[in-house]
């Protein structure tokens, strides 16, 4: 199983980025998909989750209204559209596949992790 995340980069405050995560060798639609991030010197935190059919999403309070998670089950891909980025969004972003019930994914429910993609927001 592989989760390949991409789309990170260096942007300025107020800019947008779209992260993608392509899954291979798993039945993608069976998993809740989520995005986590780890900022420098901080613990990994939940950012966004999306249900198996893509009809339900959950977000951390810090990104609500700015980030949007979506998925394409036919293409085995989950996305994270990030708008109005600020310096606090600087982090390595990880996609994750969860077998849990809750879309607000917890680490203990994650069975597969992507390798991470770095997002740096300059102020």
Order of helices and strands: EEEEEEEEEEE
Helix content, binned percent: under 10%
Rg measurement, Å: 13 Å
Q: List segments where confidence is low: pLDDT < 50 over at least 5 consecutive residues.
A: none
Structural class: mainly beta
Number of strands: 11
Largest sheet: 7 strands, mixed
Put simply, the count of helices is: 0
Shape: globular
Rounded mean pLDDT is 97
Distance between the termini: 37 Å
Strand content: over 45%
Structure, briefly:
This protein has no helices and 11 strands. With 123 residues, it is mainly β.
Describe this structure in words.
It is a single chain. The protein has 123 residues and is mainly beta. Helix content is 0%, strand content 51%. It is built from no helices and eleven strands. Strands 2, 4, 5, 6, 9, 10 and 11 form a seven-stranded mixed β-sheet that branches. The chain is globular, with a radius of gyration of 13 Å. It starts with a strand and ends with a strand.
Reconstruct the topology from this structure:
Elements: E1 2-6, E2 9-12, E3 17-24, E4 32-38, E5 45-50, E6 57-59, E7 67-72, E8 77-82, E9 91-98, E10 110-113, E11 117-122
Parallel strand pairs: 2-11
Antiparallel strand pairs: 1-3, 3-8, 4-5, 4-9, 5-6, 7-8, 9-10, 9-11
Keywords:
123 residues, mainly beta, seven-stranded mixed sheet, four-stranded antiparallel sheet, 0% helix, globular
């Amino acid at each position: 199983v592989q989760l390949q995340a991409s789309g990170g980069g260096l942007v300025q405050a107020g800019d947008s980025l779209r992260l993608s995560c392509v899954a291979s060798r798993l039945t993608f639609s069976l998993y809740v998909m989520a995005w986590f991030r780890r900022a420098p010197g901080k613990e990994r935190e939940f950012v966004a989750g999306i249900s198996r059919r893509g009809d339900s999403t959950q977000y951390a309070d810090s990104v609500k209204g700015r980030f949007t998670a979506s998925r394409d089950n036919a293409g085995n891909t989950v996305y994270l559209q990030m708008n109005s980025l600020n310096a606090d969004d600087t982090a390595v972003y990880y996609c994750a596949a969860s077998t849990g019930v809750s879309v607000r994914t917890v680490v203990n429910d994650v069975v597969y992790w992507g390798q991470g993609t770095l997002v740096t927001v300059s102020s």
